[in-house]
Design a protein that fits this description.
By secondary structure, this protein is of the alpha+beta class. The chain has three domains: 221 residues, Glutamine Phosphoribosylpyrophosphate, subunit 1, domain 1 (4-Layer Sandwich), CATH 3.60.20; 206 residues, HUPs (Rossmann fold); 67 residues, no CATH class. The chain contains 28 helices and 17 strands. A six-stranded antiparallel beta sheet has the order 2-3-1-9-8-10. A six-stranded antiparallel beta sheet has the order 4-5-6-7-11-12, with helices on one face. Strands 15-14-13-16-17 form a five-stranded parallel beta sheet, with helices on both faces. β13, α7 and β14 form a beta-alpha-beta unit. α12 runs antiparallel to α15, α14 runs antiparallel to α15 and α18 crosses α19. The longest helix is centred in the C-terminal third of the chain and has 28 residues. The protein is globular, with a radius of gyration of 24 Å.
């Protein structure tokens, strides 16, 4: 696990200053505290920060072939590198190291661009071919590892694992994009098809970008996508057996390491499943860690402790409380772009805790997206059944009127908060689901933005990419479409960004066995009833894990990794909530109606409305803008 950066001149092979590449990589020293490397040639410069995991002595980068015709800088892990290496050796290739990095060089030489189909792993890399005068940028299938890039006025393209690696280049214009601010407020993160800095792009999950000197910049090319269009016809028993085999293989492959390895353990189905399968093959006690909260209703640490006892793990835990609020500046630094998933705070703390004893930790990320584990999937299925009874011409006016009449009762018990459901039933499925995955609704965003910003957006809405993704999805069923959009937008934009930045912030490698691409492809072919049955999401996954986990772990109501920011902003952080509207970077931008922000903060503190997530969003946006721009 590492940080990479580089410069490539698209037009002519101008000299590259190694100091400039080093400056880019040095901004990401946290991603690779074990070493660094710079390599330059006419028109190209590659940089690397190394966190040593495999072949500790021989895997230094950037790595070149013996004839120096190929050079690569690589972030990630190729889990099947031993098998790929053996295949290449059988074809006559001679290796000089035992690292997975060298497999990329020989794979390119043997298969060209098709080599990426041979790699099973999480990766982002840049490969320079001197003979072709080309630079090939690649990102893994699900988008576990990030890659940012931008073109500059001198005819060069720069790239880096994190935005901060680009920001130190003097030719990059640091101008904010209000479209990305809209996206952030709507979704809680800046998705992969946008960036808070104008002109910066992110290579998408499952994409490559092949640059050739003297040729114009091409669009990225997609080499992998998940399809929900086909259905498995196997019987449930056979599906359960196949799923368990895939799970076991995915966990085993991610336990290959030359450094200490452990796991995050929340006490939920996903992380508990990973720990159970690790314990099955590990020769020693699995090292596990968990984070608890000072709000009992959101604390799962007791369940984590039960799993730790069941599988005799070496378990440790810590508590997150309002005292951790000062970490907000640390979060803003490591995310660069504004990021409002408040579970980033406990994720940082659990990564810190893990790093005290291990260098690699396995997580349970990805199962909810692949196997339909979110409550919104259940609600969406139920709403779609109701939509089937009434045409839109009847449903829209009927439920739209009821929604307008029904009060927004954030203070009421959950069963009485029907306004959102009524609004969703008035919409089509894609519009409703896009609204359900959002954070701050469109009406509130219009209330917060200044008139000139609303005009500048020209109708751009954060939700539109979700709607478009669902309508164009290779899918059969509304649930398929929702999961497809989650895998393409939410997963890389929120879940994987959070885990990557928070683990890398402390020099920890996080691995996601439940995002093995073969496992995701298998899940996408499952009949809907094998994913969602009754009120149970992840149905087949739970059935497959019944021999390992108890019923109270498998079938209790999903809690999620939720940080109690709403309670904090009414209690120990009430002063911070009140201060958001004044004396902040947000106020200086002129983008917002500060009276509307102050009103939302007052409503929240009084208990009249629940604006906890909005206040956290605005706080994170304020801190990020202050770090990125001179506002």
């Amino acid at each position: 696990m590492c940080g990479i950066a580089g410069i490539f001149h698209l037009e002519t092979a101008k000299p590259i200053d190694p100091a400039r590449v080093r400056l880019m990589t040095d901004t990401m020293v946290h991603r690779g505290p074990d070493g660094s490397g710079i390599w330059t040639a006419p028109g190209v410069g590659l940089g690397h920060r190394r966190l040593s995991i495999i072949d500790l002595g021989g895997g230094a980068q950037p790595m070149l072939t013996e004839d120096e015709a190929l050079a690569v800088t690589f972030n990630g892990e190729i889990y099947n590198f031993a098998a790929v290496r053996a295949e290449l050796e059988a074809k006559g290739h001679v290796f000089r190291t035992h690292s997975d990095t060298e497999v990329i060089l020989h794979g390119w030489r043997q298969w060209g661009r098709e080599c990426v189909h041979h790699f099973d792993g999480m990766f982002a890399f840049a490969l320079f071919d001197a003979r072709e005068q080309s630079l090939w940028l690649v990102r893994d299938r699900l988008g576990v590892k990030p890659l940012h890039y931008a073109t500059l006025s001198d005819g060069s393209l720069i790239f880096a694992s994190e935005l901060k690696g680009l920001l130190v280049h003097p030719l990059l214009r640091k101008e904010p994009d209000v479209h990305a601010v809209e996206d952030f407020l709507g979704l809680g993160y800046v998705p992969d098809d946008a960036c808070i800095v104008k002109g910066v792009r992110k290579l998408g999950a499952g994409e490559t970008l092949l640059l050739r000197r003297g040729k114009p910049l091409p669009p990225p090319s997609r080499y992998w996508d998940v399809s929900f269009a086909d259905r498995s016809t196997a019987k449930p028993a056979a599906l359960k057996e196949e799923l368990l085999a895939l799970l076991q293989s995915a966990v085993r492959s991610r336990m290959v390491s030359d450094v200490p390895l452990g796991a995050f353990l929340s006490g939920g189905v996903d992380s508990s499943s990973v720990v159970a399968l690790m314990a099955e093959v590990s020769k020693r006690a699995v090292k596990t860690c968990t984070i608890g909260f000072d709000v009992d209703a959101l604390d799962e640490s007791d369940y984590a402790a039960r799993i730790a006892k069941r599988f005799a793990t070496d378990h440790r835990q810590r508590l997150v409380s309002p005292d951790d609020y000062p970490l907000i500046d640390t979060l803003a630094h490591h995310f660069d772009e504004p990021f409002a998933d408040a579970s980033a705070l406990p994720t940082y703390r659990v990564c810190q805790l893990a790093r005290e004893t291990v260098t690699v930790a396995l997580s349970g990320d990805g199962a909810d997206e692949a196997f339909a584990g979110y409550r919104r999937h259940l609600f969406q299925q139920g709403e779609e059944r109701l939509r089937g009874f009434l045409p839109q011409a009847v449903r829209g006016p009927l439920f739209g009127t009821l929604a307008r009449l029904y009060p927004k009762a954030d203070w009421a018990p959950q069963p009485l908060r029907a306004k959102t459901t009524l609004l969703n039933l008035a919409r089509d499925g894609a519009e409703a689901y896009a609204a359900s995955v959002g954070v701050t609704g469109q009406a509130m965003r219009k209330r917060l933005f200044a008139p000139d910003v609303l005009s500048a957006l020209q109708g751009h809405r954060a939700e539109d990419r979700y709607i478009r993704s669902m309508r164009e999805a290779p899918a059969r069923d509304p649930l398929d479409r929702a999961q497809y959009a989650d895998l393409k937008i939410w997963l890389p934009g929120d879940i994987l960004t959070k885990t990557d930045r928070m683990s890398m912030a402390v020099g920890l490698e996080a691995r996601e066995p439940l995002l093995d691409h073969r496992l995701v492809e298998f899940a996408a072919r499952l009949p809907v009833s094998m994913r969602l049955r009754g009120r149970d999401g992840k149905y087949l996954l739970k059935k497959a894990m019944e021999p390992y986990l108890t019923e109270d772990i498998l079938y209790r109501r999903k809690m999620g990794f939720v940080t109690p920011v709403g309670q904090w902003f009414r209690g120990p952080l009430a002063k911070q909530a009140a201060a958001i509207a004044s004396g902040s970077v947000l106020a200086r931008t002129g983008w917002f109606d500060t009276r509307a922000i102050a009103g939302a903060a007052a409503e929240h503190r009084s208990g009249l409305s629940d604006h906890g997530r909005l206040l956290w969003q605005l706080t994170m946006l304020d801190r990020s803008l202050g770090r990125l721009f001179s506002l």
